[in-house]
Design brief:
183 residues, mainly alpha, three-stranded antiparallel β-sheet, two-stranded antiparallel sheet
């Protein structure tokens, strides 16, 4: 009986320690050391919440950079891929439709989560002509759009993980800021 009481006390102590105390400490440290990230890395424009830099969102207008397609229609509550295999008729049709709309490179296929906020710098550059035409930009302004892509390109994580990438929401905010009078 004595061993049972000790076991119950130890169980309650460890439950309190690992289920309450530890999470509160880690959350507190996160709120202090990583304030922006712990709040969702939210992006505001003119005081209005427009999204999170951590989640992709739908940009349908031709005057904006487009993100990778989303199998979950950019629903932040759920994530997931289409699970369609190469050669699947539905996938081939979707890719053909995306090509017809002007999509290239990584914009042809949905990301694994359906919520990836980044595209490759090359995929962003492939969209410059469409955006320039839609915004009636001259060649100097077109060059500024290319410079924006460079400015918003993030390098490999810690210098060696992954590939260079561009956050579509941040790039579109920068694009609007650079060309507010052309909208």
């Amino acid at each position: 009986m004595r061993n049972t009481i000790i076991a119950i006390r130890l169980f309650l102590f460890l439950t309190l320690l690992t289920g309450v105390v530890y999470p509160l400490i880690v959350t507190g440290i996160g709120d202090v050391a990583f304030k922006k990230e712990s709040e969702g890395s939210l992006i505001y424009k003119d005081g209005k919440l427009i999204g999170s830099e951590l989640l992709s969102q739908k940009f349908q207008g031709k005057k904006y950079f487009w993100p990778r397609p989303s199998a979950v229609d950019f629903n932040g509550i759920s994530s997931g891929a289409s699970n369609l295999s190469v050669g699947n008729e539905t996938l081939e049709k979707a890719v053909a439709e995306r090509k017809a709309q002007g999509a290239t490179r990584d914009l042809l296929y949905a990301s694994g989560s359906g919520l990836d906020p980044h595209i490759s710098p090359a995929a962003a550059a492939d969209q410059v002509d469409r955006i320039s035409k839609e915004r009636n930009l001259n060649s100097n302004q077109r060059d500024l759009v290319l410079k924006l892509i460079q400015d918003y390109t993030e390098g490999r994580q810690w210098g060696f993980l992954g590939e260079p990438r561009v956050n579509v929401l941040k790039l579109n905010v920068g694009l609007d800021k650079a060309f507010e009078k052309t909208l």
